[in-house]
């Protein structure tokens, strides 16, 4: 069995980058991968969710290959909504496992600050069926809000049991230099922020963000031929899909695609979820943090809020979630987000997480969603 | 951003949007809002046209306060999930009432309403919404 390694990473601070376009963000982030030069790249995967709508720019494979001075290298854009970055990583993982590639450059890039507020609402909703959902003016946030209401009613919980997730995320991001929002917040602030769609509040969602992140994946053969300082093994990766509209699922509060992807990914290295000490989850809405943690088995149903209160998901707990602030506070540059998650796990497992460092983690994992769980990707990374 | 509503798309969906004509699986009963030859739930190819009833019960609701493109002038507006007597659940706009008047379980009736007007082409798009049942003598 071939093995897949991450031999170098780069990321930009998630921000509003008014002076930069997609190409300049890509070249800047790849320039940060200096430790692994010189390269021989077999394939490039560019994750991007909405560039053809917002920047009127499709065909990012060829464009990025040229931007990087790598004309001739096969390159393609990967789109899977908010999970595009994770989908590109899975494609790179499969390319190396297949033996067809020894070195794969995976780049996630998204530029959302070009959007008007109405476009910023419209774009994530593209992941739902437009002819059924978007057509009626229903937003992704509105569907998340209905799931949120169902959750609070079913388990008879006060809203703070979900709304404390953003507080924890901002706490983590306050020590992360690349996070979009490096300030702490309080439960009172979250619960008094403007209502987006009741019960969902502004501080339980994400804001438009620009970002780019990159990872160089390689086979064990290639590892001996390239310069590198630190290496992490990409020990497992998997994906799954679910009924697209959450309310048509057997249980709208169970993210089955996330559960299937996560357990299949864990099975590749044959580890259990308790071996994972650093976990990046897709908290584009606070309620998704609850639903993911309960769906993949870290918390009992309805008990993820209680577990946050117990400190289970914080430093010193069972598993640290979103150690750099997650989608909520590190930021959610849609198509780049999955690559950020993987880069952050790399930083954790190589001891380069700075003030966000989780000690003693041998395995890290990520769960990335498109839409509200209609597809899910999971990756497992192992210290080497 | 432009051309969110295109005339051919609107025309294609007219029967569902104006009359709740759906495609129902004769094997498992699943409903599709678009013409299909394969049931998306059980993969049966026995799918036939059907029409959803004009009344349904409210399951849950929320309000869109931050609207997407083409809905700027309408916000805030109510959207919700309704359930027909056969168990089919459907997403819908809810009109002619305030959110406080709506309680899960209450009966709603279908109306045809203007959905939006596209800024670029001026296309006026109609479709279904639901409202609290108006008692008739």
Topology overview:
The complex is a heterodimer of chains A (384) and B (137).
Chain A: E1 4-11, H1 22-31, E2 43-47, H2 51-54, H3 60-67, E3 75-78, H4 84-98, E4 103-111, H5 117-125, H6 140-155, H7 160-173, H8 187-192, E5 195-197, E6 200-201, E7 210-219, H9 220-223, E8 232-241, H10 256-267, E9 276-280, H11 286-295, H12 304-309, E10 320-321, H13 326-329, H14 337-349, E11 363-370, E12 375-383
Parallel strand pairs in A: 2-3, 2-4, 9-10, 9-11
Antiparallel strand pairs in A: 1-7, 1-8, 4-7, 5-6, 8-12, 11-12
Helix pairs in contact in A: 4-14, 7-11
Chain B: H1 7-12, H2 14-19, E1 21-25, E2 31-32, E3 47-51, E4 55-64, E5 77-83, E6 89-94, E7 107-117, E8 124-132
Parallel strand pairs in B: 6-8
Antiparallel strand pairs in B: 1-2, 1-3, 4-5, 4-7, 5-6, 7-8
Task: Give an overview of the whole structure.
The complex is a heterodimer of chains A (384) and B (137). Chain A is of the alpha/beta class and 384 residues long. Chain A has a domain at 4-115 and 208-223: Peroxisomal Thiolase, Chain A, domain 1. In chain A, 34% of the residues lie in helices and 20% in strands. Chain A contains 14 helices and twelve strands. In chain A, the strands form two sheets. A ten-stranded mixed sheet of chain A has the order 3-2-4-7-1-8-12-11-9-10, sandwiched between helices. A two-stranded antiparallel sheet of chain A has the order 5-6. In chain A, a hairpin with a 4-residue loop joins strand 11 and strand 12 (375-383). In chain A, helix 4 (84-98) packs across helix 14 (337-349) and helix 7 (160-173) crosses helix 11 (286-295). Chain B is 9% helix and 40% strand. In chain B, strands 4-5-6-8-7 form a five-stranded mixed barrel. Chain B has a three-stranded antiparallel sheet with strand order 2-1-3. By secondary structure, chain B is mainly beta. Chain B is built from two helices and eight strands. The model of chain B has no long low-confidence stretch (mean pLDDT 93). Chain B has one domain. The relative contact order of chain B is 0.20. The A-B interface holds A 53-54, 116-119, 121-122, 125, 131-139, 141-143, 145-146, 149-150, 194-198, 200, 245, 247-248 and B 1, 4-5, 9, 13, 17, 33-34, 59-72, 74, 77, 79-81, 89, 91-93, 99, 115-116, 125, 127.
């Amino acid at each position: 069995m071939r093995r897949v390694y991450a031999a170098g990473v780069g990321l930009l601070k998630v921000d509003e980058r008014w002076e930069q376009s997609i190409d300049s963000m890509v070249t800047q982030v790849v320039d940060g991968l200096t430790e692994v030069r010189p390269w021989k790249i077999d394939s490039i995967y560019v994750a991007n969710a909405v560039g053809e709508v917002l920047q009127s720019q499709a065909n990012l494979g060829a464009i990025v290959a040229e931007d990087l001075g790598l004309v001739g290298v096969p390159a393609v854009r990967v789109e899977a909504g908010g999970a595009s970055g994770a989908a590109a990583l899975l494609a790179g993982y499969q390319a190396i496992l297949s033996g067809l590639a020894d070195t794969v450059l995976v780049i996630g890039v998204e530029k959302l600050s070009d959007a008007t507020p109405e476009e910023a609402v419209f774009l994530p909703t593209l992941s739902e069926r437009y002819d059924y959902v978007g057509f009626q003016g229903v937003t992704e946030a509105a569907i998340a809000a209905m799931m949120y209401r169902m959750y609070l009613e079913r388990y008879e919980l006060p809203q703070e049991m979900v709304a404390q997730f953003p507080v924890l995320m901002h706490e983590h991001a306050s020590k992360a230099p690349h996070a979009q929002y490096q300030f702490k917040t309080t439960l009172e602030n979250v619960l008094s922020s403007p209502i987006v769609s009741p019960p969902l509040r502004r501080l339980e969602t994400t804001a438009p963000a620009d970002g780019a992140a990159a990872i160089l994946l390689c086979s064990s053969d290639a590892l001996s031929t390239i310069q590198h300082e630190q290496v992490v093994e990409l020990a497992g990766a998997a994906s799954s899909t679910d009924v697209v509209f959450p309310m048509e699922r057997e249980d709208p509060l169970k993210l089955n695609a996330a559960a299937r992807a996560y357990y299949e990914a864990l099975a590749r290295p044959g580890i259990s979820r308790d071996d994972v000490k650093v976990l990046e989850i897709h908290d584009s809405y606070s309620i998704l943090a609850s639903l993911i943690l309960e769906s993949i088995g870290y918390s009992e149903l309805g008990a993820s809020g209680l577990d946050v209160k117990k400190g289970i998901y914080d430093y010193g707990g069972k598993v640290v979630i979103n150690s750099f602030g997650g989608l909520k506070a590190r930021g959610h540059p849609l198509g780049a987000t999955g690559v950020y998650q993987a880069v952050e796990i790399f930083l954790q497992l190589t001891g380069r997480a700075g003030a966000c460092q989780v000690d003693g983690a041998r395995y890290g994992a990520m769960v990335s969603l498109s839409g509200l769980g209609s597809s899910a990707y999971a990756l497992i990374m192992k210290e080497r | 951003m432009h051309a969110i509503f295109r005339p051919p798309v609107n025309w294609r969906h007219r029967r569902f949007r104006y009359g709740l004509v759906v495609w129902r699986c004769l094997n498992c009963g699943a409903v599709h809002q678009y013409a299909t030859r394969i049931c998306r739930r059980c993969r049966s190819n026995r799918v036939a046209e059907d029409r959803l009833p004009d009344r349904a019960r409210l399951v849950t609701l929320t309000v869109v306060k931050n609207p997407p493109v083409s809905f700027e002038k309408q916000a805030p507006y109510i959207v919700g999930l309704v359930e027909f007597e056969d168990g089919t659940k459907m997403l819908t706009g809810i009109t002619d009432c305030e959110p406080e008047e709506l309680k899960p379980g209450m009966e709603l009736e279908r109306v045809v309403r203007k959905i939006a007007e596209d800024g670029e082409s001026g296309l006026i798009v109609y479709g279904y919404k639901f409202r609290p049942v108006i008692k008739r003598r």
